[in-house]
Amino acid sequence: MAVTKTDNQDLILKNKIEIFFQRSIADKKKTGVCVVKDIMSVVTDKWSLFVIYNLGYYQVLRFNELKKNIRGVSSRMLSVTLKKLENHEVVVRKVFAEVPPRVEYTLTPFGKELADKAVDLNTWFLNFEGS
Predict the structure, then answer these.
(1) Which of 13, 65, 109, 127 has a CB 3.0–4.6 Å from the CB of 61, allowing a cystine?
(2) How far apart are the C-alpha atoms of 77 and 74, rounded to whole Å?
(3) Using an 8 Å Cβ cutoff, are 24 and 39 in contact?
(4) Which distant-in-sequence residues (6+ apart) come within 8 Å of 27 by Cβ?
(5) Residues 37-96: pLDDT tens digits?
(6) Cβ atoms < 10 Å from Cβ of 61
(7) Does the structure show a pLDDT above 90 at 122?
(8) Going by C-beta distance under 8 Å and a sequence separation of 6 or more, which residues neighbour residue 35?
(9) Per-residue model confidence (pLDDT) at position 127
């Protein structure tokens, strides 16, 4: 029986997933944490993508500018989200020694790459939904 293109694609996907899981398990044994699970839980929460997209578009924003751009987010939730993203090295918080204090947020190189991948994934969702 001949192997079809679909069979081959399924096999490629299966191998890709197997390699991913083997690497993920090995990394967890070394570090004690699952990095992928950890970062995905942060990025896929309700407000993180909005923060990442805004910083990806505007590059540098202050807290109130972010709050104004993200409809419906409370100050507390935005603060919690920014702290989580900063702890996972997605966002950099820069404090200026001024009166009153000025704080600006930007994406790290990892955050920029994450934003790029997230846009690609969302574009794929939108295209898939429309077909």
Answers:
(1) 65
(2) 5
(3) no
(4) 34, 35
(5) 777 887 888 899 999 999 999 999 999 999 999 999 999 999 999 999 999 999 999 999
(6) 18
(7) no
(8) 24, 27
(9) 86
**pLDDT band at residue 33 under the 50/70/90 scheme:** low
Long-range contacts of 110-116 (CB under 8 A, 24+ apart): 111/52, 111/55, 111/56, 111/85, 112/56, 114/43, 114/52, 114/90, 115/52, 115/53, 115/55, 115/56, 116/56
- Sheet strand arrangement including 61-62: 61-62, 102-107, 91-96
* Total-model pTM: 0.78
Is residue 1 over pLDDT 70? no
Pick from 125, 114, 126: which is nearest to 55 by CA? 114
Name, in order, each residue with C-beta under 8 angstroms of 110's C-beta and a sequence gap of 6 or more.
89, 90
pLDDT at 84: 94
